[in-house]
């Protein structure tokens, strides 16, 4: 375990070392799969950022409000390509401050950031040479957002990662508007073939992904989306995975690079047959642990892109418990922010990031580098485990001052994580293990009890 943790730190240093040219990446030492995945497995908590021209619209058109995610505004609010093009032309987020974004992620306890370089709308947030539909050529903003964010990440020791949508509602060869009988909604229909799609894949998508890998230093994760469209094939997925690893051998790629999911399932159905390094359950946490790498991505309210009408915010307590739940099942938590068209994080999101930061600052030992619980989940909360220590994360504090642990736990010493100097009395009988805890929960919203295990 200690060796793995040491490897993980080495891998993290390798990935964070500033390496801004492709020529340099070519000489990077190729890590084994376990070494390559180590920083990510330890990191546990990352920030997803959905930002694009849709962030100006906020999911609204006149009296209409897009159902679901506001990043789908183009489709949901029936914009034609020509109508929609006016939004990238207006994209001028004068309040964007990459350093401030990264600081907020870091203070929340997040270790990596995944930003939408291009979402389904097709508009790119970087200086693309294969497209004019990007922030440099189409927008008045004319600042390379990916460059600013990746630089800020490197400066602050956060791993930079990007999302890229295979679906593209703007590129003619991708979304099929060259074909009178073909439209966006037919993407899911395998009987409808867009003969132009392979050209989009080869001459546009791959070169764009290549630019993002060659021009912005080391990339922690390449996060694909839109794998469900029938025009995208498993051959393309496998080719793309190889293409990425040839450029940056130590990059991690999510499973949506290939076609291994059934519908919108998070995990691949036939592990090993498809390319991709981790599963991507979306807006859900599996009931039990899964014996492979996975990351749950989730919104704080109900939308990925900025949507002022959506006030369905999860509480900070809920988000902290979700983080613990995910870690106790061996996964990572990728928590979304949808900045507005000016470049601001919504205040509701900032409050939740702050609350999570306060909690992770005190209790990070029980999260980062922790592995799934070897015990069944208890009624009062969850367990995580690391280096011979079991951490009991108590969501519901016992009213009688007695915390009941799983009966098979062989403890050596029990303390509160935030008060290591005071040993708690613990009693193991054949039926149960009881720990005497203070009558009031010492921490909020989740108190962690540290259980050093006997060999
Ligand atoms: O359609 C997208 C959606 O807008 C969002 O980007 C999420 C994030 O995982 N992925 C897609 C749906 O699976």
Automatic annotation (TrEMBL):
- One Gene Ontology term of the molecular function aspect: alpha-L-fucosidase activity
- Record GO biological process: fucose metabolic process; glycoside catabolic process
One GO cellular component assignment for this chain's record is: lysosome
InterPro entries cross-referenced by the UniProt entry = FUC_metazoa-typ (IPR016286), Fucosidase_C (IPR031919), GH (IPR017853), Glyco_hydro_29 (IPR000933), Glyco_hydro_29_N (IPR057739), Glyco_hydro_b (IPR013780)
Q: Where is this site: May be important for catalysis?
A: 297
Record's function text: Alpha-L-fucosidase is responsible for hydrolyzing the alpha-1,6-linked fucose joined to the reducing-end N-acetylglucosamine of the carbohydrate moieties of glycoproteins.
Q: Which family does it belong to?
A: Belongs to the glycosyl hydrolase 29 family.
Protein name per its UniProtKB record: alpha-L-fucosidase
Species annotation: Mariniflexile fucanivorans
């Amino acid at each position: 375990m200690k060796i793995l943790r040491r490897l993980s730190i080495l891998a993290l240093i390798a990935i964070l070392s500033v390496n801004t040219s492709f020529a340099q990446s070519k000489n990077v030492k190729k890590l084994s799969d376990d070494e390559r995945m180590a920083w990510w497995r330890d990191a546990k908590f990352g920030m997803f950022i959905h930002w694009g021209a849709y962030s100006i619209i906020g999911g609204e058109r006149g009296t209409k409000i897009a159902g679901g995610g506001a990043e789908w505004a183009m489709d949901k609010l029936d914009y034609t390509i020509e109508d929609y093009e006016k939004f990238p032309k207006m994209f001028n987020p004068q309040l964007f401050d990459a350093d401030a974004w990264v600081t907020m992620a870091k203070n929340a306890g997040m270790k990596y950031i995944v930003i939408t370089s291009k979402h389904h709308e097709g508009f790119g947030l970087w200086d693309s040479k294969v497209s004019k539909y990007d922030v440099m050529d189409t927008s008045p903003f004319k600042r390379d957002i990916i460059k600013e964010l990746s630089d800020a990440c490197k400066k602050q020791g956060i791993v930079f990662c990007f999302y890229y949508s295979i679906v593209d509602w703007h590129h003619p060869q991708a979304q099929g508007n060259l074909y009178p009988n073909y439209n966006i909604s037919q993407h899911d229909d395998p009987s409808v073939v867009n003969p132009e799609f392979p050209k989009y894949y080869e001459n546009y998508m791959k070169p764009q992904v290549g630019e993002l890998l060659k021009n912005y230093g080391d990339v922690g994760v390449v996060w694909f989306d839109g794998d469900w469209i029938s025009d995208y094939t498993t051959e393309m997925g496998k080719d793309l995975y190889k293409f990425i690893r040839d450029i940056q051998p130590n990059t991690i790629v999510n499973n949506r690079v290939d076609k291994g999911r059934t519908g919108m399932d998070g995990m691949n159905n036939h592990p090993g047959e498809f390319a991709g390094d981790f599963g991507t359950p979306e807006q859900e946490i599996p009931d039990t642990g899964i014996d492979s790498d996975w990351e749950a991505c989730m919104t704080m309210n109900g939308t990925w892109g900025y949507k002022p009408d959506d006030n369905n915010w999860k509480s900070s307590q809920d988000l902290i418990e979700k983080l613990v739940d995910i870690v106790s099942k061996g996964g990572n938590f990728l928590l979304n922010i949808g900045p507005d068209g000016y470049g601001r994080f919504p205040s509701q999101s900032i409050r939740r990031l702050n609350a999570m930061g306060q909690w992770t600052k005190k209790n990070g030992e029980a999260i980062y580098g922790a592995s799934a619980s070897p015990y069944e989940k208890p009624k009062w909360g969850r367990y995580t485990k690391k280096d011979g220590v079991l951490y009991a994360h108590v969501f519901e504090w016992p009213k009688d001052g007695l915390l009941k642990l799983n009966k098979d736990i062989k403890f050596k010493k029990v303390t509160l994580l935030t008060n290591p100097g005071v040993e708690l009395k613990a009693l193991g009988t054949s039926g149960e293990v009881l720990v005497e805890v203070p009558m009031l929960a010492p921490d909020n919203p989740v108190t962690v009890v540290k259980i050093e295990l006997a060999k």
